[in-house]
Amino acid sequence: MMKNMSSIQSRFGAHLKKLRLEAGLSQEAFADKCGLDRTYVSGIERGVRNPTLEVIHVLAKGLGKEMKGLFDFDGDA
């Protein structure tokens, strides 16, 4: 079960990074926009941090997306 959890964290993080880059935002600019520390955003993108639903909501708002869009990574490689 825990192996699966780290996999979903890694996939979520990779998808978040992809969306951030598509939005043309540096990690620092995105973190500032969300009111989060850049190192925390980095940890999420690398799959080592497990963001709460509240943080995921803030990330989605920072990207101008609905929360569900942050989980739409089944089509990602």
Short description:
The protein contains 4 helices and no strands. It is an all-alpha fold and 77 residues long.
Q: What keywords describe this structure?
A:
mainly alpha, 434 Repressor (Amino-terminal Domain)
General description of the model:
It is built from four helices and no strands. By secondary structure, the chain is mainly alpha-helical. It has a single domain, classed as lambda repressor-like DNA-binding domains (434 Repressor (Amino-terminal Domain)). The longest helix has 21 residues, at 2-22. The two termini are 22 Å apart. 17% of the residues are buried. The model has no long low-confidence stretch (mean pLDDT 92). Residues 16-70 form the HTH cro/C1-type domain. Keywords: DNA-binding, Transcription, Transcription regulation. This is HTH cro/C1-type domain-containing protein. InterPro entries: Cro/C1-type_HTH, Lambda_DNA-bd_dom_sf, TransReg_Diox_bact_type.
* Relative strand content: under 5%
Task: Classify the fold: give the CATH topology.
Answer: 434 Repressor (Amino-terminal Domain)
Q: What is the terminal separation in angstroms?
A: 22 Å
**Major β-sheet profile:** none
**Class, according to the CATH hierarchy?**
Mainly Alpha
What is the CATH architecture assignment?
Orthogonal Bundle
Residue stretches low in confidence (pLDDT < 50, at least 5 long) are none
Tell me the count of domains: 1
**Helical content, roughly?**
55-70%
Number of helices: 4
> What's the overall geometry?
globular
**CATH superfamily caption:** lambda repressor-like DNA-binding domains
The secondary-structure class comes to mainly alpha
How many β-strand runs? 0
Keywords: DNA-binding, Transcription, Transcription regulation
Domain HTH cro/C1-type: 16-70
Protein name: HTH cro/C1-type domain-containing protein
